[in-house]
Amino acid sequence: MIWVLSAIACYQQLVFRYSGKWCTILAMRKRLMFAVLFSFVTVGQAYCQAYLADTPDGLTYTDPDVYSVYSVVINSMVKFRYQADAKIYIYDHTATGWSDICPTPNKKHEAMLALAVANYAKANTVERRLLPRFTLETPYELVQRVPQWVTGIYFSSIGFNRHKTVAVLSASAKGGGGTYVLTKKDGKWQLLEGWSDMGCAWAS
Fold first, then answer.
1. Greater confidence, 135 or 78?
2. How far is CA 39 from the centre of its chain?
């Protein structure tokens, strides 16, 4: 009888011990799953933020890539539309209303631009404030209103692809405007060679 009671006691201890370990394992698995899920959410939020290139309020551009892209476009515009020593005036906010770019006959460009164009349409639903962070070859000033005797430069917001290697934007200055496409190569933004907006540039 004693050995039966001892066996039962031993069995109960084993069941308790292993059930306890099993509960511990389940608890650890839950904690691990929660940690992994939290990490995915955090990384996802950061990734989306980087993709949109905005500050948390969504109203001010602070991303260095944004100003690098704008600077390349401005420097290219200045060479053809402004005197070398002329001061340029840039609107301190982006314009809204642009939702698409002109079609391109180059199928390679069309596929490459698909994500950036989609982001371009989304980015241009709101106005964003610009900061004096341009790297230009000529003096400039950010203004809310341009003086009557000069023509200012104003931009759309920028559409990026997910890896931020392609950028699409529209710009207007000195009587006309158009769509610009840039690619990032070796860490530097440059105008896409061979890009054409099929004569969709406009006069103003």
1. 135
2. 21
